[in-house]
Amino acid sequence: MPEDLEPGVIRKLDEVVVNRIAAGEIIQRPANALKELLENSLDAQSSHIQVHVKAGGLKLLQIQDNGTGIRREDLAIVCERFTTSKLTCFEDLSQIATFGFRGEALASISHVAHLSIQTKTAKEKCGFKATYADGKLQGPPKPCAGNQGTIICIEDLFYNMPQRRQALRSPAEELQRLSEVLARYAVHNPTVGFTLRKQGDAQPALRTPVNSSRSENIRIIYGAAISKELLGFSHRDEVFKFDAECLITQVNYSAKKSQMLLFINQRLVESPALKTAVDSVYATYLPRGHHPFVYMSLTLPPQNLDVNVHPTKHEVHFLYQEEIVDRIKQQVEAQLLGSNSTRTFYKQLRLPGAPDLDETQSADKTQRIYPKELVRTDATEQKLDKFLAPLVKSDSGASSSSSQEAPRLPEESFRVTAARKSREVRLSSVLDMRQRVERQCSVQLRSTLKNLVYVGCVDEKRALFQHETHLYLCNTRAFSEELFYQRMIYEFQNCSEITIAPPLPLKDLLMLSLESEAAGWTPEDGNKGELADSAAEILLKKAPIMREYFGLRISEEGMLESLPSLLHQYRPCVTLLPVYLLRLATEVDWEQEAQCFETFCRETARFYSQLDWREGATAGYSKWTMEHVLFPAFKKYLLPPPRIKDQIYELTNLPNLYKVFERC
Questions:
Q1: pTM for this one?
Q2: Is Metal-binding tagged as a keyword (predicted)?
Q3: What number does CATH give the domain 223-342?
Q4: Range(s) for CATH 3.30.565.10 in the chain?
Q5: Quick count: other Cβ atoms within 10 Å of Cβ 462?
């Protein structure tokens, strides 16, 4: 047998080599050492932590805190591997609620740097200083003067690993990484004061006060431009058992560098899935290549979290990750929908004689845009109505279809008179309804609606709209019903009113309803007059509720005086009013609060979603309302639930049309 085919001899590595290999996995750069020691200081209940740095932490990295300190008896083994006060058995990992728990940080540092610890506990009369090398105590601890707490001094990091040291960046860049780590912990722990000082500098590179706030620390560290645009919210999910506390920037702010501070169970971690989800929400609002500032703290049951995944603990795994990420994504989208209404834009005036921007900006010749990828959204060029009905010319020759004014209805009797109210809603049943709407919102469909372009109305229930290069057919009745249901919820107690002049007798309206086929009356139901009296009695009894919460007024004499105004320039179909009133009396659950509000809003939304498409002026008003009132409201207000996806159908798209013409 040839000698080169002889198997190699397996030998046991020297313990020093093993420890240095392990240390290289945990302490990859000075920022990793700082993170580990900051967590130790926070575990020790410190209220102030000071960090001193020289040469980016490679020459000196000193962390001083005023925490509980280390017992003198523990100094002998504190730098040995797997020595910890947090665990006694493996099962304790499922309930761990502190930062350091494996006992590897100090041990790893002692194998790649010169390490000394000075500490004093509350019970000791003096402090003690100890030095370590390769995890071993070098001589007995020496008594020394000092305040309560611990000072850990790391010198000549990676002195015995020249390859690692050479691979590191410049001291200035390493200092920047140290500053980023300290800044993130300062934001998450506002009650603790943090100081970062570069040796030789008169002023600290970073300082936050004790007992501050997260928003104030963000202002100190990241600047007022971010802090003034912060939008804070919290969310508790009972299904997946997690709490989220967030500070995100509104859509007025954006930066080219992405900044996301994520803490899960108080640990600074990274989650690519969560970051991608948040960025996808902001992509609807921010320019391409721009990002928000996001601080997020999640609290999960410890048994659902695996903290022992990565040597540096910057990554964790947890149960229901996809579902939790999706819930948080929905919450961020719901918050941004409200902040988008206050968005500000800036424009730059062009100096006289200066060329247009389009002339000065040269297009990238390497990126060719094909005709099938062009998005055409200029609705003023042609509309669907041109192909469905002949245009009516006025004396001036202009088309009457281009008018933006609403056609007047015959026998005008409805007018909005009430001023807008602004009362805070505190009823838990209504707040729960709002949260349910926001939780169920489809982010993808919401993005489509926000950027749609109205094409035309097909019939009383269907309309066409364009999104990018796709043409869709949607059920406008279903969309309108969901829109008005949500408007009822969000305008609760603050509805403007559509005054009915003159007021209409309630009993006569109910009799008209019973005479119609929609009521489904049969002789077995009883006398129509008695049924109308009974329904009128119910509505008169509940009139104070409808007036206070929904803006629907019925006088003591039984006269209908007003209806809620849910959208500007929108009025419901008068012919369906009698049936609506009858259904309020018979279909609304007036006994249970939550069911009462839910069923009332649903019935009202069903009534408001039906326009009058009869021939004449009403049909013209309905078409105008569809284009200029309902579809803009879909874009602005509607939070579409997933079930509404079944009411949208893609008819075609530009790439497919080009394929058809290529075959011809």
A1: 0.54
A2: no
A3: 3.30.230.10
A4: 15-206
A5: 14
Per-position b or e across 535-571, b if 16+ CB within 10 A of its CB: bbeebbebbebbbebbbbbbeeebebbbbbbbbeebb
Comparing C-alpha atoms, which of 40, 107, 92 is closest to residue 69?
40
Average of per-residue pLDDT across 329-340: 80
- Report d(CA 9, CA 332) in Å as an integer: 58
> What architecture does CATH give domain 15-206?
2-Layer Sandwich (3.30)
Does the CA dihedral 263-268-274-279 come out positive or negative?
A: positive
pLDDT digits (tens, 9 = 90+) for 371-419: 656 665 554 445 555 555 444 443 333 333 434 555 554 444 555 444 4
What does the alpha-carbon distance between residue 444 and residue 480 come to, in Å, rounded to a whole number? 19
What beta strand segments (E) does 157-241 contain? 193-198, 206-208, 230-237
- Overall residue count recorded for the chain in this entry: 664
Q: What is the pLDDT of residues 115-172, one digit of tens each?
A: 999 999 999 989 999 999 888 888 899 999 888 999 999 999 888 888 778 778 788 9
> Could you tell me whether strands 60-65 and 142-144 are parallel, antiparallel, or unpaired per DSSP bridges?
unpaired
| Structure tokens, 512 | 């008209």
| C-alpha to C-alpha distance for 230 and 23, rounded to whole angstroms | 39
Q: Which residue has the higher pLDDT, 524 or 395?
A: 524
Exposure of 37 by Cβ count < 10 A (0-12 exposed, 13-18 middle, 19+ buried)? buried
| Contact (CB, 8 A) for 416 and 571 | no
The answer to whether the CB of 265 falls within 8 A of the CB of 228 is no
Q: Which two tokens stand for residue 607?
A: 């009534």
What pLDDT is recorded for position 32?
A: 87
Q: How distant, in Å, are the alpha carbons of 331, 393, 616 from that of 619?
A: 39, 19, 6
520: left (phi over 0), alpha (psi -120 to 50) or beta: left
Residues of the chain with CATH 3.30.230.10: 223-342
Name the CA dihedral angle for 248, 252, 258, 264, rounded to a multiple of 10 degrees: 0
